[in-house]
Structure formats: structure tokens, C-alpha cells
TrEMBL record:
Matches recorded under SMART domains: HATPase_c
Residue ranges of the TM segments: 22-51, 105-132, 152-174
Pfam families, per database record: HATPase_c, HisKA_3, Sensor
Keyword field: ATP-binding, Kinase, Membrane, Nucleotide-binding, Phosphoprotein, Transferase, Transmembrane, Transmembrane helix, Two-component regulatory system
Assigned EC number: 2.7.13.3
Reaction(s) catalysed (UniProt annotation): ATP + protein L-histidine = ADP + protein N-phospho-L-histidine
Enzyme class: transferase
InterPro entries referenced in this protein's UniProt entry, alphabetically: HATPase_C_sf, HATPase_dom, Put_sensor_dom, Sensor_HK_TwoCompSys, Sig_transdc_His_kin_sub3_dim/P
Residue stretches making up the Histidine kinase/HSP90-like ATPase domain: 318-408
Organism whose genome encodes this protein: Streptomyces sirii
Protein name per UniProt: histidine kinase
Length: 408
């Protein structure tokens, strides 16, 4: 019983408060228009922020009535008028706020009036039954719509019947009506399943980009440590072994053979370490950057290569490494399989993507199923959500176009 009373009280109060707020909400859209006309472009973002606070207050009230937890939506504006307008146009929450205003007016007014009628009728019935004598005889109190009250018996009987009817309706209907309105409010201001999925995909993309950046930075650090530390020590060991071999007398026998094997093993280890470093994170990227590294790999491609570099801006380590390896693998494929006499490498930045284009004048007819190296290029691009387009008709030319997302 107490739980029901609490639901009835909270539901009735929720709807009664919603009635004047729905009346106020009727003025919001005209205020947005008038405020923008009077104050210019600077007013609308501020007014929309005020609307966000207004809708969030209703959203919190509805969630509290339903007993659910909600995540607060951002209410702050970015700095700068341009950033504010971009936020205003791109943020789907703003459109959701505008739709909620219309819904709140359409549903809040009748729901609030229904609550007011039920509660007011119940209170009026009790009060009027006790004060029926104050009404003039020519205009007596009428209860149940049309029955005149002419005595205490009629007043108490009709007052009890009318008050009980209104109270019963309030008891039964108000909690349901309030919860229906609250669910409508939450649904109007909550992201849809598609919006939540898109947001989650964006969060995962940002998370993966951060992981790839961290991975690239870690590979760069390991490369520097191996290059400056381990490789330098191997070089020193190899030099000392070489000096030791020179100092040994000619009749050293087994000792000389052991030193020779150790010396050759150290040199082989250095060669293998250089290959590991080169495939892990090219040192030339750290030394010259992407533009210098691409120019260097094109110069050693084995066929004449022309490099065209646009303004690339700042790129993450993962994107730079992927672009470098893609260019290197494509040039290697062209030199080995295409029979080309010339190749062109073009790197440009288009909005939030790095475009890598490698074109040769070879025989064409690239077949990815034969292990031409394109599969490896596709895998490198796919790791960054990139795309690869290969155009290689029989007779040539062959064009490999790779687009790598690189939004900052």
C-alpha cells in the first residue's frame, strides 16, 4: 500500500510539474527563431545550449521516476563561433532536443491536464461537500456533473461518490500515465540503436588508432634500442674477435678455428639483426621522415622511379610505416614482375586520408592469386581501415591506389 501511495504521489507530481513546463516549451521554438534574428549567428549555439540544459532536466526527472540510470549528455560549447556552429550542425543530440520539444508539448499538455483534473476533482469534491452551504440557493453546488446539493445528506453522499471516483482514477491511472510519459521522454532524448552503434564504432576506431599509434611508437623505440644498443655491441664484439684472430699465431689450431666461427657468427647475427630492424620499423623513417624515406626507396627501386609528394601534414607512426612498406612492396613487385621501364609514386593528403598511388608502364595483368604481393599490401591497409584499388589490364599500365585514414 505504501509503495502504491508513493507511486501515485510521485506520478501525480511528475505530471503536474510537466504541465507548466510543457506550456513553457511551446515558446522555445519561437524564441530560437526570434533570438537568432535579433542577435545574429552568435545567439543560436547559446540558445541551443540552454535548450540542452532544459531537456536534460526533464530527462533526469523521467529517469528518476522510472528508476533507471542514464549517462549525462555534454552541455558545454566549444570555444570559437566556427567550432560552435560545426558542433551545432554535426551533433545529432541537438536535433534530438528539437524533436523532444515538440513531443513534450504534444504529450505533456494533455497528460498534465489529465493529472490536474483528477487531483483537482478529488480535492474539490471533499472541500465542496463540506462547504456546500456557501453556494447561493439560486446557483447551488452541483456534484457528479449535474446533481444539485440541497442538504448535508446529498452533499456527503455525492461528495464521497465523486471524490472516490476521482481518487480511484488517480490511484489507478496516474502512475501508468506518468511512466508512459517518462518513457516517452527518455526515448526521445536517448540515442537510437543506430546512433549507439555508430558511436561505438567511432569509439572503437579511435581506440584502435590509439593502439596503432602506441604500437608504432613502441616499435620505433625498440628499433632505436636495438640499433643504438644491441647492434653497436655486436659490432664491437665482431671487431674484437677480428682483432683477436689477427693477434693469434699461425699454429693456434683449434683456437683459431673457434675464433673464426665466433667472428663469422657475430657478423651473421648483425646481418640478421639489421633485417629484423628494417622490417620492424625502418630506421630511415625515423631519420628522414616519410617523404625522405619514400624518395630513398624509390631511388633504389631498380627501375627509374619518379616521386611526387604533396603536403602530407602530421601523420601517425603507424600510417607512415604502412605507407613506406606499401611503396616498397609495390616497387619491388613492379621491378620483379611487371617488365616496366618507368614507375611513378605519388603521395597526397586528401582531407582525412593519405593517398598512395604507384603507377608503372609494365605489362599489366596482375593476378593476386599468384602471390604477386598485392595480398600483403591489402593486409597492411586493412590493419588501418584502409582500402586498396588495383587496376592492371592486360598490356598495362598497372596502378595501385591505397587510401589510409589518418584523421588527427
Amino acid at each position: 500500500m505504501k509503495e502504491r501511495q508513493r507511486h501515485v504521489g510521485h506520478g501525480s507530481w511528475y505530471l503536474l510539474v510537466g504541465l507548466p513546463t510543457a506550456m513553457v516549451s511551446m515558446l522555445i521554438l519561437p524564441l530560437l527563431v526570434v533570438g537568432t534574428i535579433i542577435s545574429g549567428l552568435t545567439a543560436l549555439p547559446v540558445l541551443m545550449r540552454a535548450l540542452r540544459h532544459w531537456s536534460e532536466w526533464h530527462r533526469r526527472r523521467a529517469a528518476a521516476l522510472l528508476g533507471i540510470d542514464i549517462r549525462p549528455r555534454p552541455t558545454e560549447l566549444p570555444k570559437g563561433l566556427g567550432a560552435q556552429w560545426r558542433h551545432l550542425l554535426d551533433d545529432t543530440e541537438n536535433r534530438r532536443d528539437l524533436r523532444w520539444v515538440l513531443r513534450h508539448v504534444v504529450t505533456g499538455l494533455p497528460a498534465g491536464l489529465a493529472a490536474l483534473a483528477c487531483v483537482a476533482t478529488a480535492v474539490f469534491s471533499v472541500a465542496a461537500a463540506l462547504l456546500w452551504q456557501l453556494f447561493p440557493q439560486e446557483e447551488p453546488l452541483r456534484l457528479l456533473g449535474a446533481v444539485p446539493v440541497d442538504g448535508w445528506g446529498t452533499a456527503l453522499a455525492l461528495g464521497v461518490v465523486q471524490g472516490a471516483g476521482a481518487g480511484s482514477l488517480t490511484w489507478w491511472a496516474m502512475p501508468h500515465l506518468a511512466r508512459m510519459h517518462a518513457r516517452s521522454t527518455v526515448a526521445a532524448l536517448e540515442p537510437s540503436a543506430e546512433d549507439r552503434l555508430a558511436k561505438r564504432v567511432g569509439e572503437l576506431a579511435d581506440s584502435r588508432a590509439g593502439v596503432l599509434d602506441a604500437h608504432g611508437a613502441e616499435l620505433s623505440r625498440i628499433e632505436r634500442d636495438l640499433h643504438d644498443g644491441t647492434q653497436a655491441r655486436l659490432v664491437a664484439i665482431a671487431m674484437r674477435l677480428g682483432l683477436a684472430r689477427e693477434e693469434l699465431p699461425d699454429d693456434s689450431g683449434a683456437l683459431a678455428k673457434l675464433l673464426q666461427e665466433a667472428h663469422e657468427g657475430a657478423e651473421e647475427a648483425m646481418t640478421e639483426l639489421r633485417e629484423v630492424i628494417r622490417t620492424m620499423y625502418p630506421p630511415i623513417l625515423a631519420d628522414r621522415g616519410l617523404q625522405g624515406a619514400v624518395s630513398a626507396v624509390a631511388a633504389g627501386a631498380g627501375i627509374p622511379a619518379e616521386v611526387e609528394l604533396g603536403e602530407l601534414g602530421r601523420l601517425s607512426a603507424a600510417v607512415e610505416a604502412a605507407a613506406y612498406f606499401i611503396v616498397a612492396e609495390t616497387l619491388t613487385n613492379a621491378a620483379k614482375h611487371s617488365g616496366a621501364t618507368r614507375v611513378t609514386v605519388r603521395l597526397t593528403r586528401q582531407d582525412a586520408a593519405l593517398l598512395v598511388e604507384v603507377t608503372d608502364d609494365g605489362l599489366g595483368g596482375v593476378d593476386e592469386t599468384l602471390g604477386t604481393g598485392v595480398i600483403g599490401i591489402r593486409r597492411r591497409a586493412a590493419a588501418l581501415d584502409g582500402t586498396v584499388l588495383v587496376s592492371s589490364p592486360a598490356g598495362g599500365p598497372t596502378a595501385v591506389t591505397v587510401e589510409l585514414p589518418c584523421a588527427s
